[in-house]
Design brief:
Blueprint: H1 24-38, H2 41-60, H3 74-135, H4 140-150, H5 174-183
Length: 187
């Protein structure tokens, strides 16, 4: 006989079991709801009212057929003990689920912090390399100083103040010029 070969590419078929199947996530959500309710003021008020009504009912109907718990209220004690016995583990289950969520969130926060730190270090290195590169770049002032050192300074001509116009010369007569030149001693 050959053994039936299981296929790994298909999900495993569910087996029929005698025990009931409980979804752990659904049960955990239910325990959190119960724990949230047990931690409210509404629950304390309701529980206090139930206990007061219980005591009053059993005192008023002490001799009648509606009386179900005698004075030491042993049944009330049993009910409260049973409630405490179930609520304590439910609260602990809810706390454990919250601790698991907190642990996952903390790990995610740590991963994000590591990533942020790595990004920050990368950016710091990039900025440092840019600063070093900029230190080697010739600036405008550096170029001006080097050009000034290599070439003699160019002197710009001074701008002179405009001269006042001379009065025009009076025209001389040619005969007067000849006389002036004749009377002048020759050297």
């Amino acid at each position: 006989m050959t053994e039936a070969r299981r296929r790994l590419d298909q999900p495993k078929a569910d087996r029929r079991a005698l025990r009931p199947r409980i979804d752990p996530e659904a049960f955990g959500q239910w325990t959190e709801r119960v724990a949230r309710f047990l931690g409210t003021g509404r629950y304390l008020v309701v529980q206090t009212l139930v206990i007061i009504l219980w005591v009053i009912w059993n005192i008023v109907f002490r001799n009648g057929s509606l009386h179900f718990d005698k004075y030491p209220f042993i049944f009330l004690t049993l009910v409260l003990s049973l409630q405490a016995a179930y609520s304590a583990p439910l609260i602990l289950l809810a706390q454990n689920r919250q601790d698991d969520r907190d642990r996952v969130n903390l790990e995610a926060d740590r991963d994000e912090a590591r990533s942020s730190k790595a990004d920050l270090e990368y950016l710091a290195r990039e900025i440092a390399s840019m600063r070093m590169s900029l230190g080697e770049v010739a600036t405008r002032d550096f170029l001006r100083s080097e050009l000034a050192r290599l070439e003699p300074p160019v002197k710009e001509p001074k701008q002179k103040a405009p001269k006042e116009p001379k009065p025009p010369k009076e025209p001389r007569e040619p005969a007067a010029d000849a006389e002036a030149s004749a009377s002048a001693p020759e050297a």
